[in-house]
Write a structure and sequence with these properties.
Distance between the termini: 8 Å
Order of helices and strands: HHHHHHH
Oligomer: single chain
Strand content: under 5%
Largest sheet: none
Shape: extended
């Protein structure tokens, strides 16, 4: 490989790894503000994406009317969702946590039923235990969605630090640059 390409790749890896590690530390040290920042950035994205969709619907001359109307309505809804997120970033975060909690509950019930009915190739006891743990997790998330989101952010921070550190450890050796 060209030494310039290897050098460029090394710089890319180092920069992205350092950014991941820094963001991971920030997520662990300040999980709630980090969540709010992520929600705000997502809100900005939704507003821009929705507005562009509306613009495309209005300017979509020559496209079928049903597409233009559908795109316009979806664009307005996405823009409104983005504005709601920007006004109160906690709303989409809590909605996400509640949906995750409901998902855990449904998965738990399905696992317990599957454990009693029997899935081909699976053991009943671990399946039922998995279902019970999923229901407990769902209840915890529904009772304390803010805590669940904070824990999620801490784990995301740990994952970012791990990925960043692994990237640094897997850098091609400097000797590869000299070849």
């Amino acid at each position: 490989m060209d030494s310039r390409a290897v050098r460029t790749f090394r710089v890319f890896v180092v920069v992205t790894a350092v950014v991941a590690i820094v963001l991971g530390v920030v997520a662990i040290v300040w999980p709630r503000p980090s969540l709010v920042l992520v929600a705000l950035l997502f809100g900005v994205y939704l507003v821009v994406a929705g507005a562009l969709r509306v613009f495309a619907a209005v300017r979509g001359h020559g496209t079928p009317k049903v597409w233009r109307w559908t795109s316009g309505v979806v664009g307005v809804l996405v823009t409104v969702a983005g504005l709601v997120t920007l006004i109160d970033p906690a709303v989409p975060l809590i909605v996400y946590a509640v949906l995750a909690g409901i998902g855990f509950l449904i998965e738990g019930v399905a696992a317990i039923v599957g454990g009693f009915v029997g899935h081909p190739g699976s053991s009943r006891v671990p399946t039922v235990v998995s279902g019970v743990l999923s229901i407990i997790g769902g209840v915890i998330v529904l009772v304390a969605p803010g805590l669940a989101l904070t824990v999620f952010m801490v784990f995301a921070g740990i994952a970012l630090i791990t990925v960043g550190a692994a990237a640094l450890l897997l850098l091609p050796p400097r000797a590869a640059v000299r070849r």
